[in-house]
UniProtKB/TrEMBL annotation, chain A:
The keyword Thylakoid does not apply. One of its GO terms (biological process) is spore germination. InterPro entries: Spore_GerAB (IPR004761). It is a multi-pass membrane protein. The keyword GTP-binding does not apply. One of its GO terms (cellular component) is membrane. Keywords: Germination, Membrane, Transmembrane, Transmembrane helix, Transport. It is found in: Membrane. This is Spore germination protein (Amino acid permease).
TrEMBL record, chain B:
PANTHER family: LEUCINE ZIPPER PROTEIN 4, SPORE GERMINATION PROTEIN. InterPro entries: Spore_Ger (IPR004995), UPF0353/GerABKA_families (IPR050768). One of its GO terms (cellular component) is membrane. This is GerA spore germination protein. Belongs to the GerABKA family. Keywords: Membrane, Transmembrane, Transmembrane helix. The chain crosses the membrane at residues 268-290, 340-358, 364-386, 393-416. GO terms for biological process: spore germination.
TrEMBL record, chain C:
It is found in: Membrane. It comes from Ureibacillus xyleni. The lineage of its organism: Bacteria, Bacillati, Bacillota, Bacilli, Bacillales. It is a lipid-anchor. This is Spore germination protein. Residues 20-186 form the Spore germination protein N-terminal domain.
Amino acid sequence: MQNEKFKPFYLFFITYMTQMGIVFFSLPNIIADHFGYNGWIMIIPISVVVLIHIGLIAKIYSFNKGESIFETIESLNSKAKMILMPLYISLSIFWSILSVTIAKHYVHVMKFLYFPQTDIQWFVLITLILTFYLVTRGIITIAHICTIFFFLSGPIILLLFYFVPDFSFLQFSTFLFNENKDFYGGMIELYTAFLGFEVILFMFPYISKEKSGFKYVFLGHLYTSFLYFIVTIFCYGFNSIQQLTRQVYPVVTLMKYIEFEFIERLDSIIFILFYLKVLITITMYVWISLVTLKRVVKWSDNLIVFVLLAVGYISTLAFVTKKELIILLSTLTRVQLLISVFLPLLLLIIIFKKRRSNG
Amino acid sequence: MYINKNLSAHIKGRFDDCDDLVTKTFPELEIEVLFFGHLVGEEELNNNIVQPFSNIKNDEVKNILRRIEFKQEEDINSMVNGILEGKALVIFKNSLAYAVDIYVPKTRSVAAAEIETVIVGPKEAFIEDIGTNLSMIRRRIKSDCLKVLSYKIGTITQTKMYLLYIEGITSPVLVKELQERINNIDIKGINDLNQLIQYLDRKPLSIFPQYFTTERPDVSTSKLLEGRVICLLDGSPYSLSTPTSFFEFFQSPDDYNQRWILGTLSRALRFAALVITLFASAFYVAVSMFHYEIIPVKLLHEFIKSRSDVPFNPLIEALIIESIIELLREAGARLPSKIGQTIGIVGGIVVGTAAVEAGFTSNILIIVVSISAISSFVVPHIIMTASLRIARFIFIILASIAGFFGIIFGFIILLIHLCSIKNMGEYYFKPIAPLSLKDLKDTIIRAPYQFFKK
Amino acid sequence: MARILMMIILILLMQSGCMDQKIVEELGFIHTIGYESIEEGEDIGKLKVTVSFPIAETLEQQTNTTVVDTPRESMLFLNQQTDKDLVLGQVRSILIGEKLAEKGVWDLIDTFYRDPVLRPTVKLSIVKSSPQQMLSKDYPNFQMVDSVIEELLTKEARLNSIPEMDIHKFAKDYLDDAIDPIAPIILQTEDGIMSEGIGLFSDDQLRTSLPEIKARVFFLLTGEFKEGKLLIKISKEENVIFSFLKNKRSIKVGINNNQDIDVNLSIDLKGFLLEYQGKKDINNEKQMAEMEGDIQDYIEKEINEILEIMKEHQIDNLGIGKYIKRKMDYQTWKNLDWPKSIDRVNIHPTVTVTIIDTGLVK
């Protein structure tokens, strides 16, 4: 069956929507906590490193000529498939667990903020149903949905203008990274905030050929960086640094501050609207685990997604409290960070090997 | 089936018990004419049949039968069909049959559009006669590229249908696809184009209309020029166009006939109305059941004052009022327009005021529901309005289950659904998904015509 | 098939529903909360908590009071006293008794600041006397004292006689090591309430207060006072109401050998005379210049008094520390132990007054 393809500009929306997650709300706190005074500067170098990382993927894309990375891996050796099977299965289970954990984390925060008495599993199940519904529509629909969600949630950033009168450069001070705790841990934490771009690796066969189509991934990443940057700057200018290290979700507090004549406490609407973004992140990870598992089993998409979500749900069932979830999530994202570093490297090695053997 | 003898009896046998079949005989000429008196025009009958056959000799008959309007028929089925289509069948010597088309349907004349009214622009609307409708389109597109394909729908009704497209603009794949779907329709009969649409539907469970119907020939023409396919059905004062986009239902010819700023603003107004009609009541329910904290302090007192006497919870309250509005709308639609106004007054003013005074509902809800009802009428196409009404009820219920989360949940389902509908190979949510900046100029806004040039 | 299964799960889920229904008419929206410490009697040392919330039917406010050990308990006890379910999502202001404020308020503020239901824009003010009496007294002129308090605070803050202080700003200044927080003080009178200037905190403890006239000068120093009126008493016979249009404040810090810190506070005022009572001829240029000098002296005197108060209590409510912090490296700043070292800092205020016009009449 000929795959339907999407235009490369959708990569912008997909990259941005997958990268941006719940961490957006706590990012200023993470930065202030780990880097201390003027920690916002750290977003720039980390973003540049991520840019290089994406460059690696771009290189693979240009070598691969639209071929799926699975084919690249499997082309190395015909017998390799036997070894790869367990790898595929474990990867796809890992991603399904990761996505359910992301869902659970968001839902947990939402429950804590707005629905304190509701059972967390209720929200998780609803989220998984939505994910199921969206994933089984196929990558083209997902790309379209990304676009719509982008335009729906994009204008929210304009609300930052509300804080311009309260913004004070005096809060920044001239100290650099003083009072930091765990500088290197913070760098990893910040790096994981940018994760999500690696799903592009699995989309090669679905991107229609166009000259310099991959630039949209870079643009998407730059847009994410821009949002992270501007929101952190505003939080630094609006709060005192010591206050920032105490607020778990400084962006929620920021939004609570907005009061209009006809509506107040916009945070509830905006935070719940953010569900769209989180849903895309979850969907993308479920989708990559779907395409991975598809290399192994010949079931229908519906069945695979159902099984994956069920596996993810059951294996995270025991994690309920905030502390457990945060530990689980940070462990999983660190593993994901390793995967997203080593997978492209592995692919590059295979590609170079192939080129040499082909002369 | 070829029968050379006793043709007249055969045909009459087919029309056994059809007492409205008229038989006119010219015994001296051995000519028998069969037709339905109510399908043919009196004048045409006179000019083409009665007069030529009157006062002539036997040998002149053949000359007359050689005239262009006399078409020799050999198949008995086509003779029968000919009579049913308003032709007169002239049987000569009980063995030769000639069909003369003297069909003049008795329909109303072209009148102004009643549902899709515009402020500026042509007023005429389609009528029930397909020939007149086709002529209205032909009059507007004087080009040999306008192709018309003819079909018969319904095994019994044999309703005439035309499929129109412009060669060179419409993609041939589209025409082929639609032809295939039309050929696959297997029904006894059809009454209206809106029924036909439901047979063509590939997503029958969707609440959204997937084909665009209009009663305006000018809109149909512009759809043709945009590369769409148009269908006309006999007996139906509508035309169908496909592939359809969700946003077409929010366009009105007024947007194009007025200056572009006005057109753009009224489109913006319609999208605002879309949002209001979908979410206003649900928002009220969500706020009064879950998110009290978003009410500003100045409104808070009024809000709780109005809610304090109401015996129902906000969901029941909203559903009751919404149902009353639906009742009013349905009653208004079924009644003649003059009585309909009375219903509006009784329903809107008397019931509304009394409901609030009796402490049955809060007056804030009355305002919210009325605004969302008014907003739903801003959407120019009545079919879409109906879909939005259904969606609104779903949103109200979802809001009562989980507040804003419920609304967002429903909204996501709605968007995924809209994005996954495909109509004749084109996405329903075009040009937003798939995104096409070029087409956005003519959907969300209405840019000046100069901008459309390539 | 799987899709149908999902649909069934969905319907079942929807049945169970979400448990957080808060139907508006069943709630009592607390508008104002008052806290005070009990100074005498058997409950000494405990907290007295008063809440006021509007009653929809009559548009009046109801006040409930309870005595608790910690702020967290109060909601439980208060809820038992009313048919409504009391909620905190619409709290607009917090009143703290003077005595309690002197003991420290951070625990209280932190409780509020932590609670996701509360908005960070809740106004904070110190009440001389008791918040309970202030909230529960019947006032002849207004029905709902809680909203009157809120409006008074908003209005006075606009006129720059008290600060606009909410829990977010308080937490910001409290947690910041370069500034100490302030809060407005309000007073209960015979038939109403009135604002009484600014309370100055050291950390989270109320130390002293500034009366209204000094409060305006204080805002001149923070730069928040952009335009408005200022009553100036040059001497017993001479009174000036000076309305200024432009206030430019700049703070310059000079540090020599990490020890001598010089702060130059300069304020540049431009405005016109609204009212003058006295013997000077306001049309005479020479006398006008004299008057400018008088006003300068007066404001400088007031500023010096404020600075003296701050130095005496070792507090920095103006945020001079923020400017000093910018000129230092991290270690020096930490060693400085601000604001305890404020009396080591030399602050030189300079005020320039320019009278643009004296009104319509010669």
